[in-house]
Each structure stands twice: as C-alpha cells, then as structure tokens.
Amino acid sequence: MWRPFLRLRLFALLFETAGPPPLHRLVQSGAALAVWTGLSRIPGMAETTVFVATVLTALAIGHAANARTLPEKVGHEATALSLIVFFCLIAVIYGIILLSPDPVWVQHLFTIVPALFALGCFLDIVSRTEGFGRDWWPDDAMNKARPMLTRAFLLKHLSMAVLNATLVASVSLDAWVMWFAVLPLVNHYLTAGLTTTVLLDAGE
C-alpha cells in the first residue's frame, strides 16, 4: 500500500540533494520578473522592447556568472573547440534577440538551443566517442556514468525543447515570461535530479 508513496518520496529526495539554487539563478529569475513588470508599467513602452530587455537581462546575468568558470575550461585542450562554438552561439543568440522584429523568434530560441544540446548528446550516443559528454563531465571519475548521463540528458533537452515549443504555441507572452523567469530554477533541479539518479544507478 505504501510502496507508491515510498517511491515518490525517494524521487523527491533526488531533487532535495540539489540544495537551494545558486544565488545567480535566483537573481536571474527575480531580475526577469522585475524588468518585465517594471517596464510594462511605463506608458507607451512597446511590448517587444520590454520583452527583449527582460530576456537580455536574464541571459546577461547567467552568462556573467558562468564566465567565472571559463578560465578553468580554457585549460582543457579538449574543450577549446566547444568554447569557440559556445561563444559563436552566444553571439548569434544575442544578435537575434536584439534584431528580432517578433518576440516569437526569441521565444523559439529556447526551443532551438536545447534541441542543439540534444543533437550533441545524440551524436555522442551514435558515434560512441563521448566528445560532447566529456566536455560536460570531464572528470575521469565520471567515465562509467558518462554514457548514461548522455542518454538521460538527451531526453531532458528534448523534453525542454518540446515543452517550450508547446508553450509558445499555446500561452500568452505574459505567461511565457513567467515560465522563462522560473526556467533557471527548473533547470537547476532537473539537472541535479537526473545527475543524482544516474550516479546512484552507476554506483559512483
């Protein structure tokens, strides 16, 4: 009788191990809500302008926080190409956001990006080279779990791409911004939960 509840509790524990989100994730979420709410109250402010400012603010905070780890990654020869691709992708994303005449284009970036990550995972699985996976989990201690992590995150990225595309097609821009604001927190707990699950299964 209690077995289903026990399984749910164990599943919840996987996310509890993540602990509270990093400060910059909370700042991202709060800043997105503050900019969207604040600028929307300014008379005559175009919705597209408010939307672009909201997205750019949240992304800039996230990228500024992640930049702290770049010096460590640069030291790994295996990640040099990935860093180049990463910076090019960031430049393209910012360019599309700034030049886009329609918020829908920007919204669909959050479908395309996880889809590209899913493609990287898929190519790793097919080629069995672990090049993409090693960039994300470079430690030798992760060797056993890396193939399983790649498969798990393939599903995660695909799910996020499908979810975002569904939201873009079915909810208002205001509702989508609410989703965008909590997305850093959702990613934090999903990543931690999946990683914990795989490591436990792999016996790491």
TrEMBL record:
Record's keyword annotation contains Membrane: yes
Keywords: Membrane, Transmembrane, Transmembrane helix
TM annotation in the entry: 49-66, 78-99, 105-127
This protein's record includes keyword Membrane: yes
Designated name of the protein: Intracellular septation protein A
